[in-house]
Write a structure and sequence with these properties.
This protein is of the alpha+beta class. Helices cover 28% and strands 24% of the residues. The chain has one domain: Aspartate Aminotransferase, domain 1 (Alpha-Beta Complex), CATH 3.90.1150.
Length: 113
């Protein structure tokens, strides 16, 4: 992936996840010809989230997002899904870093329960 707003966003999100959960494990999954780098996945006692890049957005999908409290309304995609929830970030969007870190910590706590 070339360096642009999407790769900058992925790096920022990666940093926020690692800060919120220092024991997180990052792994690239689902490599294919159209995406040789694969999809970054973040786990701690189970899958926390995936980070996918598209032409117009970066999608942060929380595996058990439907079970998480989201008082600030970060989730804006996959709202009808039974288990997961996602945050779509488009160029110029500002992510509430504190609220995002809290979602990560909550996802890890749910995985450990």
């Amino acid at each position: 992936m070339s360096t642009d707003w999407r790769s900058d966003t992925v790096e920022k999100v990666r940093s926020l996840i690692v800060t919120a959960e220092p024991d997180v494990e990052e792994e690239a999954k689902w490599r294919k010809a159209s995406n040789p780098d694969g999809v970054p996945t973040f786990s701690s006692s189970g899958l926390i989230c995936t980070v996918e890049t598209y032409k117009d957005k970066v999608k942060l999908t929380f595996a058990k997002g439907a079970a998480l409290d989201d008082p600030t309304g970060l989730f804006n995609a996959s709202l009808d899904a039974g288990t997961r929830r996602a945050i779509d970030l488009r160029e110029g969007d500002q992510l509430d870093e504190d609220a995002f870190a809290e979602l990560v910590r909550e996802a890890v706590a749910l995985n450990r329960s």
